[in-house]
Amino acid sequence: MNPLQDRVAIITGAAGALGQACVAHFSKLGAQVIAVDLDAAALQKLPSTAGTYACDLTKESAVREAFQTIHGDHGRIDILANVAGGFAMGPRVEETALDDWLDMFQINAVTAWLSCAQVLPIMREANFGRIINIGARAVRRPGARMAPYCTSKAAVVTLTEVLALECADTGITVNCILPGTIDTPRNRTDMPNADHSRWVPPSDLAIVIGQLADPDNTSVNGATVPVYGRS
Ligand SMILES: NC(=O)c1ccc[n+]([C@@H]2O[C@H](COP(=O)([O-])OP(=O)(O)OC[C@H]3O[C@@H](n4cnc5c(N)ncnc54)[C@H](OP(=O)(O)O)[C@@H]3O)[C@@H](O)[C@H]2O)c1
After folding, report:
1. C-alpha angle 217/220/224, rounded to 5°?
2. Whose CA is nearest to atom 42 of ligand 1?
């Protein structure tokens, strides 16, 4: 029996490195995978989806429209994996431009918050839901010149913990993973001399996200799970 058989699972950032791994793994687990990302052309190339929806997840009205359409098209939303996000190095804190600070909060924290806000009424009505957010190891081990990234991912962790409290008396769980450096093509290009074997494969992260999405996993709520590979 596939643990996610017939469950409708939205994966945001589905066209990215981790998103693609989640699409493949959730399909293997039997879910109807709904892929959401910025780029419609990139979404079209994904195999094994039950639907693709292009949407800028930083725009409240666009997120509302996309999620209402998904709900109308598929009749339910059981799982939300908020994979959309991004990273930028910057200068020191006192040299950081406001726009660069806000960009990191938009792409990491606002995308997760707006998506959660759209699915929660649907999940509350069904008294069932699994939400998995993506933080980063940088929340626990921050680096210099990356304050907007580290603090925006810290906001994702705290959002997870608040939502878990707000959902404590329901069938909804909200958890978060903290990936270490992911073995992606972009990271290999940016860090050619690193030991890539120590990085965490996207497929391993997808397995953990799938476990947090399992309907039988009823008691893990508000957790922050480190997934660092061997680094
Ligand atoms: N890579 C790492 O080492 C690492 C480490 C720790 C945590 N993480 C986190 O893990 C997640 C996945 O990382 P990844 O390496 O797979 O990143 P990725 O390949 O860049 O994938 C992220 C996806 O999200 C999309 N996206 C960005 N902004 C969006 C928006 N406003 N609306 C809709 N979609 C949007 C991107 O689209 P575009 O490409 O068109 O912008 C991209 O397809 C992210 O949350 C990231 O912060 C990554």
Report:
1. 130
2. 16
Query: 31: closest CA among 17, 48, 53?
Result: 48
How long, in residues, is the chain?
231
Catalytic residue among 80, 149, 151, 179: 149
Instruction: Kindly tell me the sign of the dihedral angle through the C-alpha atoms of 67, 37, 226, 144.
Output: negative
**Could you tell me the distance, in angstroms and rounded to a whole number, from the CA of residue 40 to the centre of ligand 1?**
15
Give CA–CA dist 6/33, Å, rounded. Answer: 9
* Residue owning the nearest CA to atom 7 of ligand 1: 136
The question of whether 228 is a catalytic residue gets the answer no
Superfamily of domain 8-227: NAD(P)-binding Rossmann-like Domain (3.40.50.720)
Nearest CA to ligand 1 atom 21: 16
Which segments of 38-120 are extended strands (E)? 51-54, 79-82
- Report the relative pairing of strands 8-12 and 129-134 from DSSP bridges: unpaired
pLDDT, tens digit, for every residue of 143-181? Answer: 999 999 999 999 999 999 999 999 999 999 999 999 999
Query: What is the structure's pLDDT at 185?
Result: 97
